[in-house]
């Protein structure tokens, strides 16, 4: 008798609604199913209003869903308490934002170390080697304002990988970059995730980016809320 | 989240809001410095004035206020309440309860420094503290009771420029008036070692010199008498401003108090001296209370400024908190960061408060020494030096609760969205 395989990532029947300022309930997520294998790299195609950021935040445990379950590494994020989700996120999930969200008062090295503080703890050697690996060895003491956009992107990636996450979520990571830099950045993200054994779930509406992925999931097709986009009450 | 992480975040935040941090730290430092100064200064003043190196147990003077008598003879402030006939000094000197009686005659000054006419017994018999006498420094000596010689206090020497061998002419009255200079010239024969007491601001001359000083009229007998050159002054004409007493024991004090203050009507006995001064401090206690209240208010305002400065940055820092949360920081971590940051500002204020404390106490000590000769020790311990900064740190942490709650409540998802 074989034991059922625990999925690396599985999302089932996830629903999320918000109350609009006018009092109506706006459903933003209604996704019957989405799966991801370990080490897999998947692109989510989604334009404005398809609920892509809400979906990533729900997977990261930054917000709760109204229904359904989100299983990451065999653990149902939706059943965790807020503090458990915080801990789980710190230990297992790396997050790369469109605007990088680096802390301005911190050096590149400090930004990476900060990412480690909430997980296994700061490891200066690892942080340095990550930045080195990303070609930022000579910019470790620079603050974000002293770095180019592309360099900031690398620091953000180093921070996302600092805790050796099993899953990296990337929300329009190339959205602020020019075409050439975007191509380099994307290649870097994919290579680093592959080398560090992390699965990648990347959201983009850029056709050039999407073309690089073997598997592209159209969010406006799997998210029934995005398809209807009608107030429900 | 370990301590290093919190220190990193708090340190970066304080540096990022440097101007606001500096201003808040300074306001806290002012409050803490004030609290520590007021507490320590009031405590030390009381101790210095009530337990300083006086050497005497009691003062006998003209009928009047005990406090005025003590202020005039021990602290060399105020004016003398009046004179006593020499006979009274003679009687009390022989009293079996009295160990030592030294007469004082006041009423002259040299450039504001009071001149006290007394006997050489002040230097030879009186111990101002156990085993310690009012001794002239090396190269000097005590005056000869029959000559125009003077022994000056350390502060007088430093401030007036008088040295051993210098000559000077006293001025009439206890306040300096250049038009009131006497013709008599005195020579400085000794400078006393520092006593850190009002004695350092005094010029001691033989009491006979006061009796014979020009313009001085003696009324010891009830009639006016002016001393004649080359003639001895009959005791009946002499008078003293006060008699400083060293008593044999405490019961002697009770006995003299009963005899002089309760049954007699001629003189006043100020006994014990420290009790008389303590009464002054008790009466003036409200001044200290007001100062303490002001200091507390400044501390409360400082705590309020911590709260306001942190609270005002909460809006601009919402994104920072959201990023920290996205990195895995729990709500309680964000809460703790703000409370620690608030406490850190207060603690920094407490540290800088020591600078304010030393500045205030140093200034106050200089004024007190200049006016009274009493020395305030800048490095004297007072519990407020520990409790005030610790209490302020705790208050700072409390002041951080409201901003911390605001940070705690930051919505992560909405604050991570691109702003442009």
Structure notes:
- The complex is a heterodimer of chains A (233) and B (420).
- Chain A has 233 residues and is an alpha/beta fold.
- Chain A has a domain at 9-96 and 166-228: 3-Layer(aba) Sandwich (Rossmann fold), CATH 3.40.50.
- Chain A has helices at residues 52-60, 82-92, 108-117, 124-133, 149-161, 179-195, 207-210, 219-222, 224-228; strands at 9-19, 25-36, 41-45, 67-72, 75-76, 93-96, 167-171, 199-204, 215-218.
- In chain A, the strands form 2 sheets. Chain A has a 5-stranded parallel sheet with strand order 6-7-8-3-9, sandwiched between helices.
- In chain A, helix 3 packs across helix 4 and helix 3 runs parallel beside helix 5.
- The longest helix of chain A is centred in the last third of the chain and has 17 residues, at 179-195.
- The mean pLDDT of chain A is 87.
- Chain B has 420 residues and is an alpha+beta fold.
- Chain B has 2 domains: 3-49 and 284-415, no CATH class; 58-271, no CATH class.
- Chain B has 15 helices and 14 strands.
- In chain B, strands 1, 3, 4, 7, 8, 9, 10, 11, 13 and 14 form a 10-stranded mixed sheet that branches. A two-stranded antiparallel ribbon of chain B has the order 2-12.
- In chain B, helix 1 (3-16) crosses helix 12 and helix 2 (18-51) packs antiparallel against helix 9.
- The radius of gyration of chain B is 31 Å and the shape is elongated.
- The two termini of chain B are 31 Å apart.
């Amino acid at each position: 008798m074989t034991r059922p395989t625990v999925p690396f990532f599985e999302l089932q029947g996830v629903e999320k609604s918000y109350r609009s300022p006018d009092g109506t309930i706006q459903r933003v997520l209604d996704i019957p199913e989405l799966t991801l294998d370990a080490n897999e790299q998947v692109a989510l195609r989604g334009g404005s209003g398809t609920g892509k950021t809400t979906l990533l935040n729900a997977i990261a445990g930054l917000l709760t869903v109204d229904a359904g379950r989100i299983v990451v590494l065999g653990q149902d994020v939706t059943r965790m308490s807020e503090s458990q989700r915080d801990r789980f996120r710190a230990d297992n999930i790396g997050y790369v934002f469109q605007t990088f969200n680096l802390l301005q008062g911190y050096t590149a090295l400090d930004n990476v170390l900060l990412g480690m503080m909430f997980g296994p703890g700061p490891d200066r050697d690892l942080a340095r080697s990550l930045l080195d690996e990303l070609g930022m060895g000579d910019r470790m003491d620079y603050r974000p304002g002293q770095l180019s956009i592309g360099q900031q992107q690398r620091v953000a990636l180093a921070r996302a990988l600092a805790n050796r996450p099993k899953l990296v979520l990337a929300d329009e990571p190339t959205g602020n970059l020019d075409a050439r830099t975007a191509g380099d950045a994307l290649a870097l993200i994919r290579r680093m995730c592959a080398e560090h054994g992390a699965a990648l779930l990347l959201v983009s509406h850029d056709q050039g980016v999407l073309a690089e992925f073997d598997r592209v999931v159209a969010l406006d097709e799997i998210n029934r809320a995005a398809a209807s986009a009608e107030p429900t009450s | 989240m370990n301590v290093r992480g919190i220190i990193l975040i708090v340190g970066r935040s304080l540096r990022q809001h440097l101007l606001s941090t500096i201003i808040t730290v300074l306001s806290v430092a002012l409050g803490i410095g004030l609290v520590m100064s007021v507490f320590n200064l009031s405590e030390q003043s009381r101790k210095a004035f009530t337990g300083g190196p006086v050497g005497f147990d009691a003062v006998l003077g003209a009928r009047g206020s005990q406090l005025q008598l003590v202020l005039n003879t021990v602290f060399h402030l105020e004016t003398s309440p009046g004179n006593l006939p020499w006979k009274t000094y003679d009687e009390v000197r022989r009293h079996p309860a009295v160990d030592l009686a030294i007469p004082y005659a006041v009423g002259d000054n040299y450039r504001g420094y009071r001149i006290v006419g007394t006997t050489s017994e002040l230097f030879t018999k009186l111990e101002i503290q156990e085993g310690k006498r009012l001794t002239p420094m090396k190269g000097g000596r005590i005056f000869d009771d029959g000559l125009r010689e003077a022994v000056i206090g350390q502060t007088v020497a430093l401030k007036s420029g008088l040295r051993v061998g210098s000559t000077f002419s006293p001025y009439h009255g206890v306040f300096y008036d250049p038009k009131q200079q006497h013709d008599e010239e005195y020579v400085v024969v000794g400078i006393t070692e520092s006593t850190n007491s009002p004695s350092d601001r005094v010029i001691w001359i033989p009491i006979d010199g006061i009796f014979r000083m020009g313009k001085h009229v003696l009324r010891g007998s009830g009639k006016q008498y002016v001393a004649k050159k080359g003639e001895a002054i009959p005791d009946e004409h002499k008078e003293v401003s006060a008699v400083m007493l060293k008593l044999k024991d405490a019961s002697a004090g009770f006995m003299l108090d009963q005899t002089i203050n309760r049954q007699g009507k001629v003189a006043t006995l100020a006994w014990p001296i420290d009790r008389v001064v303590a009464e002054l401090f008790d009466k003036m206690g409200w001044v200290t209370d007001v100062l303490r209240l002001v200091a507390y208010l400044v501390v409360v305002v400082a705590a309020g400024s911590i709260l306001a400065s942190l609270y005002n940055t909460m809006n601009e820092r919402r994104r920072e908190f959201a990023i920290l949360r996205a990195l895995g920081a729990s709500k309680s971590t964000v809460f703790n960061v703000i409370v620690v940051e608030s406490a850190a500002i207060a603690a920094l204020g407490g540290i800088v408060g020591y600078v304010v404390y030393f500045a205030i106490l140093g200034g106050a000590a200089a004024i007190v020494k200049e006016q009274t000769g009493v020395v305030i020790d800048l490095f004297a311990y007072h519990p407020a030096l520990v409790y005030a900064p610790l209490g302020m740190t705790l208050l700072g942490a409390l002041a951080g609760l409201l901003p911390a709650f605001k940070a705690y409540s930051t919505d992560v998802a909405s604050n991570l969205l691109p702003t442009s």
